[in-house]
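User: I would dearly like some help making sense of a protein record. I have put the entry right below:
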Amino acid sequence: MTKKAATGTEKTQRAGRNEKAAPAKKSAPVKKAAAAKQPAAAKKSASAKKSASAKKTVPVKKQAPAKKPVVAPKKAAAAVEGVAPAKTVAAQPPRGESRTALVRRARRIDRELAEVYPYAHPELDFENPFQLVVATVLSAQTTDLRVNQTTPALFAKYPTPEDLAAANPEEVEEILRPTGFFRAKTKSVIGLSKVLAEDFGGEVPGRLEDLVKLPGVGRKTAFVVLGNAFGRPGITVDTHFQRLVRRWRWTEATDPDKIEAAVGALFPKSDWTDLSHHVIWHGRRICHARKPACGACPVAPLCPAYGEGETDPEKAEKLLKYEKGGFPGQRLNPPRSYLEAGGKPAPPLGAG
């Protein structure tokens, strides 16, 4: 073979080797990409294994079910089967309640209470304005029941203002001892009797400005007398009334005079006396100070404070007082309408 031929053959062989090597260069990036994917997949696999092992080793805590806010039922007296009684929550005022909506809600509450307590009346026994003003003064810091059990002996011995004005204070104190603060109360009832005898001819005046001049008589006592002895409308702001109108968000005021003005503006003047009876009766029987019977309340759907007390209907029913709980009322001689409605008269002092 000649040198030239050998050279040509070598070139041909080198060209063939170059053609075979060229595709290998192009495939190199593919191998790099595949190699790059393999570590990533390996990382994902390792991560998955770690998370799987973590799930096996770390117990998963079950989340407690979210607490639902207490919502007043349509009929608070009806229990819901299979549902645990709702827990109490802090009262919240109605959101965005307009003045018109407040008036409507307040009057609806009064209408509902009027149906529940159609026999509502002053819970002090009295036969005339003099007896009522004395009994109301004595009712401070005690129950109407205790006053009703005490006044029969007082009025039997001192039936008129002139009689009580001339009474021996020590004898009056002994009669009034069961009512508490009997010395101060003796001074008040003897003092107001003297004013009635000397300035008003032995008659109880029928004007607010005259009544508040009597010893021991404030606006609350005066409105009790005006509304129940003279038929003149008035709002009686006692402790029950204050508590309930604030729970119902009729007013945020704490001063009795401001409460009287705020609530009076929500109702016609002709409704004031009966409204006072309805609210006070509800406060004594159902909407108690310490533990209101929310689950037995007829106005629960209208009350922003629903849930402050016992919401379970069966437990709430056990909290009811007086005739609502099947017990005697506070008057020894209640009106016939009360007795016909199933109310029981209270026992006299010392009975039972």
In short: The mean pLDDT is 82. The radius of gyration is 42 Å. DSSP finds 14 helices and no strands in the chain.
